[in-house]
Design a protein that fits this description.
The complex is a heterodimer of chains A (230) and B (742). By secondary structure, chain A is of the alpha/beta class. Helices cover 22% and strands 26% of the residues of chain A. Chain B is built from 25 helices and 26 strands. The chains are: A alpha/beta (230), B alpha+beta (742).
Chain lengths: 230, 742
């Protein structure tokens, strides 16, 4: 499987995810420039975190119109895998590849810290190896991470088992206090109905290297690589 | 050309004597544009005219030093294997006092440009902040604005903010201090220089367009803050971190081509400063066509274009014939890239607007080391100094044992000691996946140099209360504490950068602070073999009503940890580990938070320090770490020994506490637990290593005492009494800043 990491001019987690895929997990990985219209034959596209085009308007609002995003949208519509992390998740909702929106955190502040994640569904490429009873410690770093969707959309997410991650406490219990940003239903990550487009606010690539003292994020990459190994 | 007068010169911040000197240099009266150029270049901010005499006394040399202090935009230190670390600290105090958000944001932008203009990619940022009384609404407004400014800029720029310090004291009520530090890594064959030469080589301005923001910012930074300062608002610059990110990437790509002659960022005094410093250094001149500078608004005056401090701009001199390659890189990043002039052999800066010569000045006469004035300022010991020195501990009644837990709680929740989480979580501390300290904290931040086993270990430190009590000794302590933090993290101290924040240098008592600080820095840096790579001087941190801020020579220290496996952290690890204090307890509560804030007693000298003892302790700590004889290390600093122990317990990954006893009966209990005498470190040691550990300490002749052990109950127990539970301590520790700032 070939991975492609989109690079917007204001991306800043592009290299982190690139190096986890390439160096830690030894996968063929390329960076794809935002002005390009060629996905270079990649099977799995990652839209990384950062501030795409500065995000002075609204996170991801401009990025969805970039040349490369047209190709990413086509790729997704053809069943190709796309994962958006943080700003990437915001961009994928702006591009309507995923339902809902990410609003300003309810404390109105940028918030960078470890949180605990419950992998709510194991029925997806990126969560298939996870354990629902375990709390995964993964960092967040965002000012606009409050997941919002209409009741109708939320019901659909539930009905289709599209909620992949929810903020929880250290015992994997989903509680109001354990939600860092005011997200509806503590939602931290979802997939589309077709289960090939994924979005999550937490940064698994920041928890995949021993020297960082936290490798809880590795399970997500190991899940994805099941596809390669099988 | 318009006529200039002494009065106009004075309005621009120059003295009558300086005006005469300018006339001598030019052989005629300067026109207004030329006078403006001199006024910013001869401001303290650019010329160091009131400080350079003393700065030159600081030690500058070591085998690792790749450039000497003052030669380039930032210090550059060889870290081996073909890599170098560029690092620097800089102040943005005056802008932040008026407009905390933009002031702090552009401070972050400016320091990072100083790093990447040398070809280095920034990998970590720190900041050192000082504010007034936290009870004041104005202080709270300033903290919120400054923290948001640093966060918004640094987070979008994409370089982690990995640590720093915050200190509250009334002396900063009017003048907060915002000092920003950045460190970057460059391959030693890709280092860029701030130089210009080669007649006919094109001169480019790249990055943002030039606007009217920040005009006379450098002069503004060289004045006291007063009610009139609000009129200087246009002197505060506005930052755009997205542009900075683009400029970073484009600049590094441009440097990598090997076609650049030189490059300098535009900070203070904008085009004026970059053209003059690069030209003076390369002993060449430039013809610059100001009408070719991309501007944000029409009809900007020549002096406005010359002095604008619009952010996110660079001046580049490139080899003739390589223009298209440079243009292509900046096109890729959608940035302005305009040729605005050429290099000449005249050693003069000739500025034109539409073929009309509007200013013609010799480059060398503008700059530090050239014609810029150099002053020896008077200094006088202030009256309070002797009074402070006479303090005796007996003036403070020793508290009863029953009082001690209450004092402990007071200190843990004191704004100067309490958790910095409210601030730290607004900064992205993890982007770049190299900050190894997020999950496993140490006294200093340890940041991995990606692709290697090497790590930079960085810390910013200054207890300005100590410096106020005794500038020389207080600054010795600042250097030692920075080094101790690095050593307690497993790193070897390598070099420092300094940010020298003082009041008005024309006041002899203020200048005495400055002189004492430099003397102390020299002594400590020589002893610890950490030369000074440069930094920044910020005078005039004082208001007309409230006098100067505490003298604050912030030390930013770089250390090196070659092997990440030898990283040391500060948290207690296992039940049953023995807890030791290394170093000597002294009957000293001078200038401690305990004396100053709990007893509200302000007149005392700096705490005790002995440099030989300190150096020996640091050497021994490193040996203990390298021989894997200890499992945690945390230096005793603000709040004293009890706070240190509690912090190690609160940081533990599991449920742990400590049970310790008073091991010296020669000192008062308050001095033992809350005194801040220097050169002490708390370590924990596993049972198996105790013997080897003690043997090593004895062989090094380092004083130590076994305080007690790590226990599985979450308690802070002293002499058999539980002063408070670790959970209660945590609550006190965490509640303080949110209480004031939310």
């Amino acid at each position: 499987m070939k991975f492609g990491v989109i690079v917007f001019p204001g991306s800043n987690c592009d290299h982190d995810i690139y190096s986890v895929l390439k160096d830690t997990f030894k996968q063929e990985t390329v960076k794809l420039w935002h002005k390009s219209t060629d996905l270079e034959g990649c099977d799995f596209i990652v839209v990384p975190g950062g501030f795409s085009y500065g995000d002075y308007l609204r996170s991801g609002a401009i990025a969805r119109f970039s040349p490369i995003m047209n190709e990413v949208i086509k790729h997704a519509e053809n069943g190709g895998y796309v994962l958006g992390i943080c700003n990437g998740f915001q961009i994928l909702t702006e591009a309507h590849l995923l339902p809902g929106a990410l609003l300003r955190n309810n404390n109105q502040k940028f918030n960078c810290k470890n949180i605990f994640l419950q992998a709510t569904s194991q029925n997806s490429l990126i969560t298939q190896n996870t354990d629902r009873a375990k709390a995964y410690k993964i960092p967040i770093a965002h000012a606009e991470g409050r997941y919002y969707a209409s009741d109708k959309d939320l019901n659909e997410l539930i009905a289709n088992d599209q909620i992949l991650f929810r903020y929880c406490d250290k015992n994997a219990k989903v509680t109001e206090e354990s939600c860092p940003n005011g997200s509806k239903m503590n939602i931290a990550g979802i997939c589309n109905k077709e289960r090939n487009v994924f979005g999550m606010m937490p940064h698994p690539e920041r928890a995949a290297d021993d020297i960082l003292g936290n490798t809880d994020g590795r399970i997500i990459f190991e899940s994805i690589l099941q596809l390669v190994n099988n | 050309m318009e006529i200039t007068t002494t009065e106009i010169a004075q309005k621009l911040g120059l003295t009558a004597e300086e005006f005469i000197k300018i006339e001598e240099i030019l052989g005629r009266k300067p026109n207004f544009t030329e006078l403006s150029i001199f006024s910013v270049m001869w401001s303290e901010h650019c010329s160091y005219k009131n400080s350079i005499v003393w700065l030159k006394t600081l030690p500058k040399k070591s085998d690792r030093m790749l450039v000497e202090a003052g030669e380039e935009n930032a210090g550059l230190v060889d870290i081996g294997d073909g890599l170098a670390c560029s690092f620097k600290i800089e102040s943005h105090n005056h802008p932040s006092a008026l407009e905390p958000y933009q002031g702090a944001a552009t401070g972050v932008g400016g320091i990072n440009r100083d790093i990447f203009t040398m070809g280095a990619r920034p990998i970590a940022q720190l900041n050192s902040l000082r504010f007034g009384n936290i009870n004041l609404a104005k202080t709270q407004w300033l903290v919120r604005g400054v923290v948001k400014g640093i966060g918004d800029y640094g987070n979008a720029f994409g370089i982690p903010t990995v640590g720093g310090e915050v200190f509250f004291d009334e002396s900063y009520n009017v003048n907060p201090l915002v000092n920003a530090f950045s460190a970057g890594i460059v391959e030693t064959d890709k280092i860029a220089s701030a130089i210009s030469f080669g007649v006919g080589n094109p001169v480019y301005i790249v990055g943002s367009a030039t606007g009217k923001d920040g005009i006379h910012g450098a002069s503004f930074a060289s004045k006291d803050i007063s009610d009139d300062s609000i009129k200087d608002l246009p002197a505060v610059q506005v930052g755009d971190p997205f542009q900075e990110k683009l400029l970073l990437e484009a600049t590094l790509e441009a440097i990598a081509t090997g076609h650049l002659i030189g490059i300098q960022d535009m900070g203070a005094a904008g085009i004026t400063c970059s053209t003059s410093e690069m030209s003076a250094k390369g002993e060449h001149g430039m013809k610059i066509y100001l009408d070719k500078v991309p501007t944000r608004q029409k009809n900007m005056q020549p002096f406005e274009i010359l002095l604008s401090e619009s952010q996110e701009r660079m001046l580049i001199v490139i080899k003739k014939g390589k223009e298209a390659e440079l243009q292509a890189i900046f096109d890729k990043w959608d940035l302005n890239c305009a040729q605005i002039g050429v290099v000449t052999d005249t050693k003069r800066l000739e500025f034109y607007v539409n073929e009309e010569l509007v200013a013609d000045v010799p480059a060398d006469d503008l700059v530090l080391g050239g014609g810029a004035p150099v002053y020896h300022r008077e200094y006088t010991e202030p009256e309070y100094y002797k009074e402070f020195q006479q303090f005796q501990i007996d003036e403070i009644e020793e508290p009863d044992n029953e009082k001690l837990p209450e004092i402990a709680k007071f200190l843990i929740g004191h704004p100067n000691i309490a958790s910095r989480r409210w601030i730290a979580e607004q900064y992205d501390s993890m982007v770049g996946t190299a900050n190894t300290s997020t999950n496993e904290p140490s006294d200093a931040a340890i940041v991995n140099v990606k692709g290697t086993n090497k790590n930079i270990v960085i810390s910013v430190d200054c207890n300005s209360r100590y410096v106020n009590s005794d500038p020389e000794q207080g600054t010795i302590i600042a250097v030692c504490e920075a080094a101790r933090n690095i050593v307690c993290s497993g790193g070897e101290p390598v070099a420092i950068t300094n940010c020298l924040n003082f009041g008005n240098p024309y006041i002899p008592e203020v200048y005495w602070h400055f002189v004492g600080a430099i003397k102390g820095m020299k002594t400590a840096c020589e002893k610890l073999k950490t030369p000074v790579t440069g930094g920044n001087v910020s005078f005039y941190n004082q208001s007309s009503d409230e006098g100067p801020v505490f003298p604050t020579p912030t030390i930013g220290m770089l250390g090196l940890l070659e092997d990440i496996n030898l990283k040391m952290t500060l948290d207690f690890k296992n039940e049953g580990d023995s807890i030791y204090q290394l170093g000597t307890s002294r009957n000293d509560i001078s200038s401690s938070e305990y004396l100053y804030s709990y007893h509200k007693y302000k007149a005392s000298p700096a705490p005790f320090i002995d440099l030989d003892e300190e150096a020996k302790l640091q050497k021994t700590i490193l040996e203990l770490i390298q021989n894997k004889l200890i499992v945690s290390a945390h230096d005793v600093s603000d709040g004293g020994l009890f706070v240190t122990l509690t912090e190690s317990a609160m940081a533990a990954n599991k449920d742990l506490g400590f049970s310790v006893k008073t091991t010296s009966h020669k000192v008062r209990k308050d001095a033992f637990w809350f005194g801040e005498s220097q050169s002490r470190v708390v370590v924990s040691v596993s049972k198996e290593k105790k013997e080897d550990f003690e043997t090593l300490l004895k062989s090094q002749n380092v004083d130590f005492s076994e305080l007690g052990s790590v226990v599985s109950e979450k308690v802070c127990q002293v002499d058999g009494t539980i002063w408070l539970s670790v959970d209660d301590a945590k609550e006190e520790f965490e509640a303080t800043l949110p209480k004031y700032l939310n």
